[in-house]
Specification:
By secondary structure, the protein is α+β, with helices and mostly antiparallel strands. Helix content is 17%, strand content 42%.
Length: 379
């Protein structure tokens, strides 16, 4: 393999695919990136067997030549060292030349590195996903869905299926749900498809989605999403992002969401978030971050917290309306702040069915997104 490439383009591609490389692995070749030069350009691949990212650098883009390929070929190079080297090269023109024993010369200006390479034939092959289960989502919408759900996945491996976001589709709508059994985040969105697509129990690891979100900022075209029984592929302009799916049946969360409520409070989301943030300054002294919420009149609610070692705080927060019964409830401040930040709404409605039942936060007059939180039992 022998080629010349623009440093900035090469560096961005190395950074993109390195997101899939595990910092620790028992398989030495997975510490590397596979580089393959061919007639269409240079393809870089990174994988930890859970996530795989493939990035194509075309020969030219927008009339600008990005690569000159003198000789096709492939090699696997250590991802960490390659990334550090490319980042610090002195000029924007980089030459790579691979010898028959995979020793790779990287030259830029007066700097010349020789990096030991590995046999690319030993690198795991990416799955070939030929499936009629495919649909399309705008890149910005997909990133919003990830931001509004993935934070609520479980961090505990005791129930591995809860460390992912459950995707299901019916009648042209995608529903994404995440829960750690203490809270739940749900987002619905319409999608485009070439057929009448219906599926359920497609559980994508939260880590995969968070890494995917980092790649979506530069995308303008809709993202093609392809499903098989064990893998999901997110195909962008020059990037293919593969993730394995989690095994196991995701719990039926629909029964957790109350259809009726006994108390509904409407309020400004930013004011509520700031009040909880202030109250949590003392609540953090308690491991449960417990905040007490009292709704007894139609003009304001009271938010308070108490720590025997530190002190106490209370604040009245103006509301837009109170409907139904008076209510006293306690909850984890972090969970509510996470939910409020995810809602993206200036005004919200909180629906309660009792002091010890899950409650819902949702934007006023919008049913595409909701957050559900279990209260905390206090003496």
């Amino acid at each position: 393999m022998h080629l010349t490439i623009q440093r900035d383009v090469f560096m961005q591609a190395v950074q993109d695919v390195s997101k899939a490389v595990a910092s620790r692995t028992t398989i030495p070749i997975l510490t590397g990136l596979k580089l393959e030069a061919h007639a269409d350009g240079l393809t870089l691949t990174g994988s930890d067997t859970e996530i795989s990212i493939e990035r194509l650098i075309p020969i030219e883009e927008g009339g600008i030549e990005l690569i000159q390929i003198q000789r096709a070929g492939s090699v696997v190079l250590n991802a960490r060292f390659l990334g550090e080297i490319v980042k610090k090269l002195p000029t924007n023109e980089v030459t790579l030349e691979v010898s028959p024993n995979f020793m790779t010369r990287i030259e830029s200006g007066q700097a010349e590195f020789h990096l030991n390479g590995l046999d690319p034939d030993e690198y795991p092959r990416l799955p070939e996903l030929a499936s009629d289960r495919r649909f399309y989502l705008p890149a910005d919408l997909l990133k919003t869905i990830i931001r509004q759900t993935s934070f609520a996945v479980s961090s505990q491996e005791t129930r591995p299926v809860l460390t992912g976001v459950n995707f299901s589709a019916e009648k042209g709508f995608l529903t994404c749900v995440a829960t750690d059994s203490h809270r739940l985040a749900l987002r619905r969105a319409r999608f485009e498809t070439d057929n009448d697509l219906t599926f359920q129990n497609v559980v994508v690891p939260g880590r995969s989605l968070n890494e995917l979100a980092k790649l979506l900022d530069r995308e303008e075209l809709p993202i093609e999403i392809v499903l098989t029984d064990q893998q999901i592929l997110f195909r962008m302009k020059n990037i293919s992002f593969f993730s394995r799916l989690l095994d196991g049946a995701y719990p039926d969360t629909s029964r957790l969401i109350p259809e009726e409520y006994r108390t509904a409070v409407r309020m400004n989301a930013k004011e509520f978030l700031q009040a909880i943030d202030r109250a949590s300054l003392l609540a953090r002294a308690d491991r449960n971050n417990v905040i007490k919420f009292v709704a007894e009149d139609t003009t304001a609610v009271e938010v308070s917290s108490h720590s025997p070692e530190v002190g106490k705080v209370s604040e009245r927060v103006s509301i837009l309306s109170l409907e139904g019964e008076e209510l006293k409830i306690s909850f984890n401040s972090k969970f509510v702040m996470d939910a409020l930040r995810a809602l993206d709404a200036s005004e919200i409605e909180i629906q309660f069915t009792g002091s010890m039942r899950p409650f819902i936060l949702r934007p006023i007059e919008q049913d595409s997104v909701l957050q559900l939180i279990l209260p905390v039992r206090t003496s």
